[in-house]
């Protein structure tokens, strides 16, 4: 089983597909959108922690930036009704720390904003994950930081941008580029539009 890849990034296809060349062998990898937009430029070196999923009809590599992120992905796969596609969507929509905070706050509304996750699945996630996630140990989460409120504001800004015609992955990346903890949703949206105009 493959647990880690270190090689040259030779191909990317938004929002989640890439190929890493390791000693002449190209490995196709699926990654969360958050990881995709943090990738180096093509032909630069990249290191990914890998979850190797083997099925009867396929062998799929999922890449993450940390062992903690991969562990959350693996834990999500154990939840009834959550497959690899849904787990990847969750990690594309929010950070591990934000997800932990949402689970602790039993915030169904935030979870159903993840593509492919309905209300029943969100409720099941909260029940099954509440004892398995800790905001203080995921992605360097700080329990003194108001992560849940930050997530709510950013999610609001992303939803507004999508309503304006931006694709979900594009809206997420734009918000991530400009958002600061003290900003309101309106400020984030304005800066995103300015950023798009400058681009």
What does this structure look like?
The protein contains 9 helices and 5 strands, in the order βββαββαααααααα. The longest helix is centred in the C-terminal third of the chain and has 17 residues, at 147-163. It is 46% helix and 19% strand. The protein has a 5-stranded mixed beta barrel. The chain has 3 domains: 4-64, Nucleic acid-binding proteins (OB fold (Dihydrolipoamide Acetyltransferase, E2P), Beta Barrel); 67-129, DNA polymerase, domain 1 (Orthogonal Bundle); 147-198, Helicase, Ruva Protein, domain 3. The protein has helices at 33-36, 67-77, 84-93, 96-104, 108-111, 119-129, 147-163, 168-178, 185-198; strands at residues 4-13, 17-22, 25-30, 45-54, 59-64. The protein has 199 residues and is of the alpha+beta class.
